[in-house]
Design brief:
alpha/beta, FAD/NAD(P)-binding domain, Flavocytochrome C3, Chain A, domain 1, Methane Monooxygenase Hydroxylase, Chain G, domain 1, 4-stranded mixed sheet, 20 strands, 35% helix, globular, binds flavin-adenine dinucleotide, binds succinic acid
């Protein structure tokens, strides 16, 4: 048994923020499934929202967040995050994040749903700069141990104890060490799940390959509540390209004047802007759910492969300066965004639901905390406002760490835990089946549980899940664990939570649009599932 003060599952913005705060007082072990920079954080483009301009107010940011979230947000969480945003940005500046500047102040860009310019950014590759600064700070701290290539399998709960006593505590995690091939039993007094979202439950997603909802599935299996899993966010503008499947074109392109238009094969409507038919006031800067649905609607109505995002009417030097990485990537693919439109489609982008937490990052299980995209804090409600996600990671990573430090004496020492049973063998035949099942899940989730839903399709998805779950459980019980098998088991768990939550919501709100219940109910109620 390998005992630690605190174990953090995840080395993205949430996990590293928590580690850096905790390291002032405790020793921390941070696990990452692959490379330390392998999560969504490093891929973030647009930036981080914060009220930093004299003409803007906290109330504006709160109100924009609640409007985007279709009223499902918990106001006290929104206030907490918005009010802590400037301090979070200051910490990042102190860690050396080279945010773009405009004369003496930080440059603020604009994105959909924001009534003011309030997005700090590092060109169009903010996430990379943030990940780099956090990682360097964490790596240089003597109290932080960073361990990549460790795949957390299950949280250690009462049933794993040598002498179970019915307690609900979480005491660490079993994790597959991909370098040795062995499963390690890692115990701790507190555990933070910061393992990111579940984007890869869907066939098309902007998220990295590891976004398989592991932490959400692990917490659920350990007995924690999850909420609002039906609120899956689709980004309106993922590049349409036959070779590059998940390259995001940041919302800031629309923020800086980009227009959505119908492409050449749209017949007599070719070249027309269409957002005026969906949101005449905000047009391309409407919240993401509205723009993604509009793109999806036009693509289906006209039988198109994509719609166009065009910023070629702006000065080419401005475009190159603001979007250097996107410009370079597109140039490599033969698209010059300064002179021609970019073909785009909607793709899954963000998991608004997750492990239910309170303002201190506490889950419903003692000793278990969560932060970032794996959690549901009440900030995003039915639809996340652009660039509020990284912000949530910094604020809740820090809050969870503070709560652990403050309540350290109340967190009991881990008891004796049974080691992992390593007697099972690998069956290479089954490995092919695992890959196929993975693709099958992602395909039916895309087709049946996508941007526009119906009860019939959700029930069809539920039926597929029930059948596949039996198969997956059988592989899992009989064979040695591999990363693919661990992820597949989590994928089916998370798909089940998404579909069950979607079936439970009898209205259309924010990201959950279901044709059988097109109306919004008077009261906004969270979908909370209990194991
Ligand atoms: P991640 O950064 O995803 O990190 C997850 C960590 O958990 C990784 O270290 C991973 O290895 C680890 N992990 C996962 N499973 C396991 C396991 N089983 N065992 C061990 N470790 C595990 N948000 C914004 O606010 N602004 C933006 O501009 C923005 N742009 C985006 C662009 C793209 C392309 C994408 C995909 C997302 C974007 N987002 C943006 C969303 C934002 O990047 C993410 O929500 C945020 O980075 C999530 O951070 P996190 O720390 O919760 O998780
Ligand atoms: C983007 O840059 O469009 C993504 C921003 C976000 O996901 O908040």
């Amino acid at each position: 048994m390998n005992q630690h003060d605190v174990i953090i599952i995840g080395s993205g913005a949430a996990g590293l923020s928590a580690a850096i705060t905790l390291a002032r007082t405790h020793k921390v072990l941070v696990l990452a499934k692959g490379e330390l920079a392998g999560g969504s954080t490093a891929w973030a483009q647009g930036g981080i929202a914060a009220v930093l301009d004299a003409g803007d107010t906290f109330e504006n940011h709160i109100s924009d967040t609640m409007i985007a979230g279709a009223g499902l947000n918990r106001r006290e969480t929104v206030e907490f995050v918005v009010e802590n945003a400037p301090a979070a940005i200051e910490r990042l500046v102190d860690m050396g994040v080279p945010f773009n500047e405009d004369e003496d102040a930080l440059h603020l860009t604009r994105e959909g749903g924001h009534s003011h310019r309030r997005i700090v950014h590092v060109d169009d590759a903010t996430g990379w700069a943030v990940q780099d600064a956090l990682q360097k700070t964490a790596a240089s701290h003597p109290n932080i141990t960073l361990k990549p290539h460790m795949v957390a399998i299950d949280l250690i709960a009462d049933r794993h104890r040598e002498s179970p006593d019915g307690s609900k505590n979480v005491w660490g995690v079993y994790a597959l060490n991909n370098e040795t091939g062995h499963v390690e039993t890692l115990t701790s007094r507190a555990t933070i799940v910061a393992s990111g979202g579940a984007g890869r439950t869907y066939l098309f997603s902007t998220a990295p390959r590891g976004a398989t909802g592991d932490g959400i599935a692990m917490a659920w299996r350990a007995g924690a509540r999850v909420s609002n899993m039906e609120m899956m966010q689709f980004h309106p503008t993922c590049l349409y390209n036959l070779e590059v499947k998940n390259f995001l074109i940041t919302e800031a392109v629309r923020g800086e004047g980009g227009h959505l238009k119908l492409p050449n094969d749209a017949g007599s409507e070719a070249g027309e802007r269409f957002m005026q038919r969906f949101d005449p006031e905000r047009m391309e800067l409407a919240p993401r759910d509205i723009v993604a649905r509009a793109n999806d609607h036009e693509i289906k109505r006209l039988g198109l492969d994509y719609v166009h995002l065009n910023i070629s009417h702006r000065d080419p030097e401005f475009v190159r300066q603001h979007f250097p990485n996107i410009h370079e990537k597109l140039t490599g693919l033969g698209i010059d965004m300064t002179t021609e439109p970019i073909p785009v489609v909607p793709a899954q982008h963000y998991t608004c639901g997750g492990i239910l937490i309170d303002l201190a990052g506490r889950t419903t299980l003692p000793g278990l905390y969560a932060a970032g995209e794996a959690s549901e804090s009440g900030l995003h409600g039915a639809n996340r406002l652009a660039s509020n996600s990284l912000l949530e990671c910094f604020v809740f990573g820090d809050a969870a760490a503070r709560d652990i430090a403050e309540h350290w004496d109340d967190l009991p020492e881990p008891p004796a835990i049974n080691p992992w049973d390593e007697s099972r063998v690998t069956d290479s035949d089954e490995e092919v089946v695992i890959k196929q099942t993975w693709t099958e899940i992602r395909r039916f989730m895309w087709n049946y549980v996508g941007i526009v839903r119906t009860t019939k399709r959700l029930e069809r998805a539920q039926h597929r899940i029930d059948l596949l779950r039996e198969e997956v459980e059988e592989y899992y019980s009989n064979f040695r664990v591999t990363q693919d098998l661990i992820e597949l088991r989590n994928l089916i768990e998370v798909a089940d939570l998404i579909v069950k939550s979607a079936l439970a919501r009898k209205e259309s709100r924010g990201l959950h649009y279901i044709t059988d219940y097109p109306e919004l109910l008077d009261q906004a109620v969270d979908t909370i599932l209990s194991p």
